[in-house]
């Protein structure tokens, strides 16, 4: 017989004689009949899993995966917190075969759950000292640091480097503010000039319209005059009239010459 | 035609005088002569004679029923009178010119003539200048050309401030605001209102300034505008008696965009005692309590 065969046989025999396993039965029974116990067991299991993940996250080297794991943890915590009130309601219900002490114990267990859930470290307490300027949010009472207020630890002490860093940050911020103020003044002037230009243009619009109509009238007058002039000039200098003029001139000269001849005699 | 202006004038005069041989004056030729003579005098810098010649030319053009040319000649005469320094003459001649322009139906040149007159005499006869400016503005407003009136109102305000008549200056500024409102020039309008408030504060009349601010706040756009906010800061600084704040607001860029005269006033704020207005009201309440017994 090979090992696999032995394992399979052992499994089959266990399954057959499971009903004689008192411990297991008790556990199964309890969780099978009781909705509260079932829910409680589920939440318990999830809390354990979350704690394991938190362990993993704190050991992680890469920042991105830490952040991702922390986000997961926070989501799980939120979900668990939502399920707690449901469990609370179940805890108050009386189940047959349950003693009063057990009922009270259940209540306490449920109340202890939210604390346990919050205690799961999820990286929210990593920044012990936040740079200034976040006053209001710092007073949020629900945020808990996982260091339990032990700020004397060497880890949290102000180092010279951090002091310098803070000072540099403040100087740069002041310089930025000055620059921004200058820009703002310049923009103010620009806005004022733009407004004035706008009004000036508005003023010029009706004037431009007047000029437009006057120029149109003058142009049409000019065209008219040009046409009449052309008419007159063609009339005056047409070639036909010119020939008639020359012929008449020749006739007059002829008459004059004839008279001259007659008189000379 | 001889180019000697004296001879020209004499000739023209002869043409216009009615005698036995002449039953109707020959205005056309006379006017021509007068114009030539006037130009010759102007070139020769004989301003007095030039002015007279221009006046006569203008009369000639009037007789020829051409008010436009008549008005133009009057303006030239007035400009020469300005060179001479006859301020009363200047005012009269420009007024005549303006009337002639109105006859032509052209309000713009009429008000321009009055404006030139006012500018010429404002140093010497400020009251006359005020009158001229006001007339010019009303001419334009009648003709619905409010936009052109802005400059005149601003000049009028400057004259009033020089005369230290601050209520008049503020009134002129408010009329500017009204004209700007009619043509939807909101920027000029708000600047005018802010200037009026500053003028009132400079005259140490805080109540009037507050009233002015409240009146102007009826226009919702003013409240939200730069100028409105500046005005409210000024008023609140005054009512708190906070000199530092007043000085700071006066240095702000919004005030820098107003007229020069107003900027000068603003820099000099606060004038006189800036006591908190609250002190006055507290006393009043004390008296009332006593009276209620």
From TrEMBL, chain A:
<keyword id="KW-0653">Protein transport</keyword>
<comment type="function">
    <text>Vesicle trafficking protein that functions in the secretory pathway.</text>
</comment>
<feature type="domain" description="T-SNARE coiled-coil homology">
    <location>
        <begin position="170"/>
        <end position="232"/>
    </location>
</feature>
<comment type="subunit">
    <text>Part of the t-SNARE complex.</text>
</comment>
<dbReference type="GO" id="GO:0048278">
    <property type="term" value="P:vesicle docking"/>
</dbReference>
<dbReference type="GO" id="GO:0006886">
    <property type="term" value="P:intracellular protein transport"/>
</dbReference>
<feature type="transmembrane region" description="Helical">
    <location>
        <begin position="246"/>
        <end position="263"/>
    </location>
</feature>
<dbReference type="InterPro" id="IPR000727">
    <property type="entry name" value="T_SNARE_dom"/>
</dbReference>
<dbReference type="InterPro" id="IPR006012">
    <property type="entry name" value="Syntaxin/epimorphin_CS"/>
</dbReference>
<dbReference type="GO" id="GO:0012505">
    <property type="term" value="C:endomembrane system"/>
</dbReference>
<dbReference type="GO" id="GO:0006906">
    <property type="term" value="P:vesicle fusion"/>
</dbReference>
<dbReference type="Pfam" id="PF05739">
    <property type="entry name" value="SNARE"/>
</dbReference>
<dbReference type="GO" id="GO:0031201">
    <property type="term" value="C:SNARE complex"/>
</dbReference>
<keyword id="KW-0812">Transmembrane</keyword>
<feature type="coiled-coil region">
    <location>
        <begin position="40"/>
        <end position="90"/>
    </location>
</feature>
<dbReference type="GO" id="GO:0005484">
    <property type="term" value="F:SNAP receptor activity"/>
</dbReference>
<keyword id="KW-0813">Transport</keyword>
<keyword id="KW-0175">Coiled coil</keyword>
<keyword id="KW-0472">Membrane</keyword>
<dbReference type="GO" id="GO:0000149">
    <property type="term" value="F:SNARE binding"/>
</dbReference>
<feature type="region of interest" description="Disordered">
    <location>
        <begin position="124"/>
        <end position="143"/>
    </location>
</feature>
<dbReference type="InterPro" id="IPR045242">
    <property type="entry name" value="Syntaxin"/>
</dbReference>
From TrEMBL, chain B:
<dbReference type="GO" id="GO:0005483">
    <property type="term" value="F:soluble NSF attachment protein activity"/>
</dbReference>
<dbReference type="Pfam" id="PF14938">
    <property type="entry name" value="SNAP"/>
</dbReference>
<keyword id="KW-0653">Protein transport</keyword>
<dbReference type="GO" id="GO:0006886">
    <property type="term" value="P:intracellular protein transport"/>
</dbReference>
<dbReference type="GO" id="GO:0016192">
    <property type="term" value="P:vesicle-mediated transport"/>
</dbReference>
<keyword id="KW-0931">ER-Golgi transport</keyword>
<keyword id="KW-0472">Membrane</keyword>
<dbReference type="InterPro" id="IPR000744">
    <property type="entry name" value="NSF_attach"/>
</dbReference>
<dbReference type="GO" id="GO:0019905">
    <property type="term" value="F:syntaxin binding"/>
</dbReference>
<keyword id="KW-0813">Transport</keyword>
<comment type="similarity">
    <text>Belongs to the SNAP family.</text>
</comment>
<dbReference type="GO" id="GO:0005774">
    <property type="term" value="C:vacuolar membrane"/>
</dbReference>
<dbReference type="GO" id="GO:0031201">
    <property type="term" value="C:SNARE complex"/>
</dbReference>
<dbReference type="InterPro" id="IPR011990">
    <property type="entry name" value="TPR-like_helical_dom_sf"/>
</dbReference>
<protein>
    <recommendedName>
        <fullName>Gamma-soluble NSF attachment protein</fullName>
    </recommendedName>
</protein>
């Amino acid at each position: 017989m090979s090992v696999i065969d032995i394992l399979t046989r052992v499994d089959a025999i266990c399954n057959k004689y499971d009903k004689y396993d008192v411990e297991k039965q008790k556990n199964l029974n309890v969780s099978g009949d009781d909705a509260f116990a079932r829910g409680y067991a589920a939440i318990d299991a999830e809390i354990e899993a979350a704690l394991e993940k938190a362990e993993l996250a704190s050991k992680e080297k890469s920042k991105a995966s830490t952040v991702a794991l922390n986000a997961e943890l926070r989501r799980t915590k939120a979900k668990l917190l939502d399920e707690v009130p449901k469990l609370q309601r179940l805890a108050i219900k009386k189940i047959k075969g349950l003693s009063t002490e057990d009922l009270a114990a259940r209540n306490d267990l449920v109340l202890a759950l939210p604390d346990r859930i919050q205690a799961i470290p999820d990286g929210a307490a990593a920044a012990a000292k936040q740079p200034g300027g976040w006053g209001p949010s710092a007073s949020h009472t629900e945020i808990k640091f996982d260091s339990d207020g032990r700020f004397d630890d060497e880890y949290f002490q102000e180092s010279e480097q951090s002091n310098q860093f803070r000072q540099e940050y403040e100087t740069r911020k002041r310089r930025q503010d000055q620059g921004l103020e200058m820009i703002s003044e310049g923009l103010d002037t620009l806005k004022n000039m733009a407004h004035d230009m706008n009004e000036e243009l508005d003023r010029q619009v009706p004037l431009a319209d007047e000029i437009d109509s006057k120029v149109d009238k003058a142009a049409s007058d000019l065209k008219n005059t040009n046409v009449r002039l052309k008419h007159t000039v063609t009339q005056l200098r047409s070639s036909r009239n010119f020939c008639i003029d020359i012929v008449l001139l020749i006739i007059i000269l002829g008459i004059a010459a004839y008279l001259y001849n007659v008189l000379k005699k | 035609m001889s180019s000697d202006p004296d001879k020209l004038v004499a000739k023209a005069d002869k043409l216009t005088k009615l005698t036995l041989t002449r039953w109707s004056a020959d205005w056309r030729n006379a006017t021509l002569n007068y114009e030539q003579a006037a130009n010759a005098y102007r070139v020769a810098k004989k301003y007095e004679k030039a002015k007279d010649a221009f006046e006569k030319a203008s009369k000639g053009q009037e007789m020829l029923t051409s008010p436009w040319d008549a008005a133009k000649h009057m303006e030239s005469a007035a400009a020469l009178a300005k060179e001479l320094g006859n301020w009363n003459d200047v005012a009269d001649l420009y007024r005549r010119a303006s009337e002639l322009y109105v006859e032509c139906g052209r309000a713009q040149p009429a008000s321009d003539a009055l404006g030139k007159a006012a500018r010429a005499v404002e140093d010497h006869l400020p009251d006359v200048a005020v009158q001229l400016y006001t007339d010019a503005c009303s001419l334009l407003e009648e003709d619905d050309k409010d936009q052109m009136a802005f400059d005149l109102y601003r000049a009028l305000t400057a004259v009033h401030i020089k005369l230290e008549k601050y209520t008049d200056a503020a009134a002129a500024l408010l009329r500017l605001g009204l004209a700007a409102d009619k043509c939807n020039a909101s920027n000029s309008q708000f600047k005018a209102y802010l200037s009026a408030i500053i003028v009132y504060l400079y005259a140490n009349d805080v109540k009037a300034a507050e009233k002015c601010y409240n009146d102007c706040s009826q226009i919702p756009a003013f409240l939200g505008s730069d100028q409105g906010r500046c005005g409210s800061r000024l008023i609140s600084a005054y009512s708190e008696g906070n000199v530092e704040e007043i000085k700071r607001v006066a240095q702000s860029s919004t005030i820098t965009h107003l007229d020069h005269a107003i900027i000068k006033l603003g820099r000099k704020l606060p004038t006189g005692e800036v006591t908190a207005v609250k002190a006055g009201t507290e006393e009043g309440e004390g008296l009332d309590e006593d009276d209620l017994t």
